[in-house]
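Hey,

Quick one before I head out. I ran the complex with zinc ion overnight. Inputs first:
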Amino acid sequence: MGRRKVQCKYCNRVLSGGVWHLKQHLVGIKGEVVPCSRVSSKVRIQFCQYMKEKETSKVNITRRRQEIREELSAPPRRSVDAIHLSRGRQTIDLDDDEEEHFRRASQASRRSFAEEDYLRRTG
Ligand SMILES: [Zn+2]
C-alpha cells in the first residue's frame, strides 16, 4: 500500500495512485485526481508534452509491432488462406456429392419401397 503513495513536491499532497496519479495531478487531468494548484504552468506543459510523447511513442511501438507481426505472418498466412480456399472448394464438392448421393439413395430406397409395395399388392 505504502509504496504506491507518492507525494507531490509542489503542493505536498499525497497521492495514493502512484506515479501515474502524480502525473495526472501535475498535468491537471480531471477525474481521478485533484489537479495540482501549486505547479507552474511551465512544468504542467512539460508534463503534458511528456505524456503526449509517451502516448505517441506507445502508439508507434504498437503500430510497429503490428507491422512486424504482419510482415512475419504474411507469407504463411497467405498460403494458409490458399489451403483453406482449396480445402473449402473440396469440402463444398464433397458436400454436394454427399447430398447428391444421399438424395439418390433416398430416392432409390423410396422407389424400391414403392416397388416392393406394388409387388406386394399385385403379387
Ligand atoms: Zn501538487
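The longest strand covers residues 6-7.

Talk tomorrow,
K.
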